[in-house]
Amino acid sequence: MNIRRPVIIGAAFLAIGAIILVVGNLGGIDWWPRSEQPAATPVDLATDNLPVPPFPPRIAEDDQYDKCMTMIADDPEGAEAIATSWQATGGGDAAIHCQALAAIASGEPETGAEMLEKLAHGGKVQGFTRAVLLGQAAEARMMAEQAEQALRDTTEALSISPNDVDLLIGRAEASDALDRSGDALDDLNQALTLDPSRGDALVMRTSVWRRMDMLEEARSDIDKALAIDPEDAEALVERGILRQAMGDLAGAREDWSHARTVDPNSDAAEQAEQNLTLLDSGAARK
After folding, report:
1. For the domain 1-179, what is the CATH code?
2. In this structure, are residues 46 and 54 in contact, taking their beta carbons and an 8 Å threshold?
3. What are the b/e assignments for 26-65, b being 16+ CB within 10 Å?
4. Please, where in the chain does CATH 1.25.40.10 lie?
5. Interval 205-235: pLDDT, tens
6. Coil/strand/helix, residue 164
7. Taking the model in full, what pTM does it have?
8. What kind of fold does domain 196-286 have according to CATH?
9. Average pLDDT, whole number, for the chain?
């Protein structure tokens, strides 16, 4: 059986371009790389268990917008209701943005993606802001298992911001889901050239190499990923699959057991548990 690396959506969901957008006024847009984040704002929330970003891009400076965005983490349905009402009274793009993210957090990724795409194409949003919104839409499309649409959105976003590492990784994920391994590798290679420290890209490229039976290349990448973060549960799961493919069943069991303890409530831990069950039953995993 050909096992593809699962799409894991967590606190980093929709954090496109490794940047935070803050619109302070109508006169300009300021960007900060994640290593130089500004002081926390009301939307700077812990969202480890929700498919929303800890730092959503801000497209307005408004108390109602702050309230709506702040509610997404704990009460996405309430945020969506506020945004819908606000939009009816002239909330504009800010209300639509909050409504879209709230819809995604409420379990309606396709609806949220459609709203983000319309917002990105509405004519008022330009430049990097547009790329960010398209990147958000693409990740929501992946949540809805709509890889073709995700590929379209990321490709358009990359035409605006061609060296955005997150967008490159996002497009690679969409290409991989569509069994376009060569295209996925091209984007992952570019992303890792721009930022060799991206463990998520290394793990994804490991999976692609492995499914192409290029096991030495896969082993090199997964070793790099785990050197960056030895407690990366997704990397441990992937190394376990690779070890099993190379005949090291004891090593595979060790990695999957470790992945379960590192992040026991994660999708990676669930996959590790499934792999251990298969291993115990004698089923082959590739």
Report:
1. 1.25.40.10
2. yes
3. eeebeeeeeeeeeeeeebebebeebbbbbbbbbbbebebb
4. 1-179, 196-286
5. 999 999 999 999 999 999 999 999 999 999 9
6. coil
7. 0.79
8. 1.25.40
9. 82
